[in-house]
């Protein structure tokens, strides 16, 4: 079956990330359709590394279906590389993530990893973050309170109804944020009681972006 042009770019970016793997180590694995291509590519190299830590139940199942061992992050002392996608990424390699709802575990693994390699098709590369709504994971009983606080910050929250995260929580997708300082907004959102975390990855941004275009893949560093 032939891939759409966007899926072909996702696959190209994901496969290029294999060059960043450290032989013999554990690799951090994100979540989403781009990462699914990475997991499938990883399966061809599974004897070259020890195993993976995973940011979601969905990725864990896909890794295990390929016979790749998935470790508990608590039992992993070193994580040289984390590979994940993004919903938006800018020239500072700050991202909006969490379209797939796995933002909290993704942020935890990103914090542990030495190097965050972000794999995207060119549609994700933006001049300014915020067109894609910013996901915020909330403790269920705090949903309305958190939503009211988000309105005070200038956002327009929408409950992602019917979605429960792997951590048993809910998600608010926040539209229309005017994001001038992503790192500051990330901190402000995280200070609201009841917020588990939010999908701005500005304080822990990516170290490298692999951006697939119609003309091939480019590796971009932070500006
Ligand atoms: O943050 C994520 C999941 O929580 C994904 O990385 C993001 O949504 C991009 O997904 P895709 O590769 O399917 O476009």
TrEMBL record:
<dbReference type="GO" id="GO:0004751">
    <property type="term" value="F:ribose-5-phosphate isomerase activity"/>
</dbReference>
<dbReference type="InterPro" id="IPR037171">
    <property type="entry name" value="NagB/RpiA_transferase-like"/>
</dbReference>
<feature type="binding site">
    <location>
        <position position="124"/>
    </location>
    <ligand>
        <name>substrate</name>
    </ligand>
</feature>
<dbReference type="Pfam" id="PF06026">
    <property type="entry name" value="Rib_5-P_isom_A"/>
</dbReference>
<dbReference type="GO" id="GO:0009052">
    <property type="term" value="P:pentose-phosphate shunt, non-oxidative branch"/>
</dbReference>
<comment type="subunit">
    <text>Homodimer.</text>
</comment>
<dbReference type="GO" id="GO:0006014">
    <property type="term" value="P:D-ribose metabolic process"/>
</dbReference>
<dbReference type="InterPro" id="IPR004788">
    <property type="entry name" value="Ribose5P_isomerase_type_A"/>
</dbReference>
<keyword id="KW-0413">Isomerase</keyword>
<comment type="pathway">
    <text>Carbohydrate degradation; pentose phosphate pathway; D-ribose 5-phosphate from D-ribulose 5-phosphate (non-oxidative stage): step 1/1.</text>
</comment>
<feature type="binding site">
    <location>
        <begin position="84"/>
        <end position="87"/>
    </location>
    <ligand>
        <name>substrate</name>
    </ligand>
</feature>
<feature type="active site" description="Proton acceptor">
    <location>
        <position position="106"/>
    </location>
</feature>
<comment type="function">
    <text>Catalyzes the reversible conversion of ribose-5-phosphate to ribulose 5-phosphate.</text>
</comment>
<feature type="binding site">
    <location>
        <begin position="31"/>
        <end position="34"/>
    </location>
    <ligand>
        <name>substrate</name>
    </ligand>
</feature>
<feature type="binding site">
    <location>
        <begin position="97"/>
        <end position="100"/>
    </location>
    <ligand>
        <name>substrate</name>
    </ligand>
</feature>
<protein>
    <recommendedName>
        <fullName>Ribose-5-phosphate isomerase A</fullName>
        <ecNumber>5.3.1.6</ecNumber>
    </recommendedName>
</protein>
<comment type="similarity">
    <text>Belongs to the ribose 5-phosphate isomerase family.</text>
</comment>
<dbReference type="GO" id="GO:0005829">
    <property type="term" value="C:cytosol"/>
</dbReference>
<dbReference type="InterPro" id="IPR020672">
    <property type="entry name" value="Ribose5P_isomerase_typA_subgr"/>
</dbReference>
